[in-house]
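agent> Task received from the user: take the single chain below, predict its 3D structure, and emit structure tokens. No templates, no multimer pairing.
agent> Plan: (1) validate residues, (2) run structure prediction, (3) serialize to tokens, (4) report one or two observations.
agent> Step 1 OK, no nonstandard residues flagged.
tool_call: predict_structure(input=
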Amino acid sequence: MTPPPVERHTGLGRGLGALIPQTSSSGGAPVEIPISRIRGNPYQPRQRIEQQALQSLAASIAMHGVLQPVLVTEVLDGYQLVAGERRVRAAQMAGLDHVPAVVRQMAQRDQLAVAIVENVQRADLNAMEEAHAYRQLADEFGLTQDEISARVGRARSTVANTLRLLDLEPSVQQALSEGHITEGHARALAGASPTGQRQLVESVMVRDLSVRQTEELVRRLRERPATPSNTKTDPDSDMDRIEEDLRRALGTKVLLARSRKGGRIVIEYYSDEDLSRLFDRLTGGVS
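)
tool_result: status=success, residues=287
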């Protein structure tokens, strides 16, 4: 017999239904539970929630109610949230006392896996949050990368590459978490030493470099020969330092572009007031 075609998903390989233990229809219907009896999920991988998005969700819930039940597991003093933290918070903001919930009995590692899947499917996790969640599955529950891959529906190579982000220098991890650089930038910077990463990440942000330009910057740094203290400083290093000094002095993005005969200094401004401020700074207030 020819096996049925395999359904292909974009994003995660498996949805929440593949991870949540199913019960009979008589015991799996959503029920209304008091928000006051819901405890937060200690395995919530998301570390930050955008307040504006939460307010928009609260406005929608105030008008239409909570359309998708949250997922909880029963504990001695009520319920522990597994998936749906944003919905619970928004329901509270909207003034609701109860929310619809599906109650499941789940092992702790399954609770973390489901929380990861839900957040990744909704694009709510940044790369560093995802990496920390995978590390937690490995450290607290002893899962291998293959087992993590199976539980969250990611390719093993994706899990491995995400975990490698935890080896980045802390300033690069912070820039990635805050959205100042992309995961592609971070992977490019991983090719540099920790000291090199610290030196380069701010330059990448200030100069708004592409991933390709970042890769080239890392390549040049790695190929640069060690400079003895009694020899002339490398010109590229001087350019980076001058750019940084100008940026701090002017309080805006500055880019130096070399040419065969000199070069250009590009100073950015973002409003008429900003232009006026830069003019006064550069001219000493003399018009």
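agent> Step 4: summary for the user.
The longest strand covers residues 70-75.
agent> Done.
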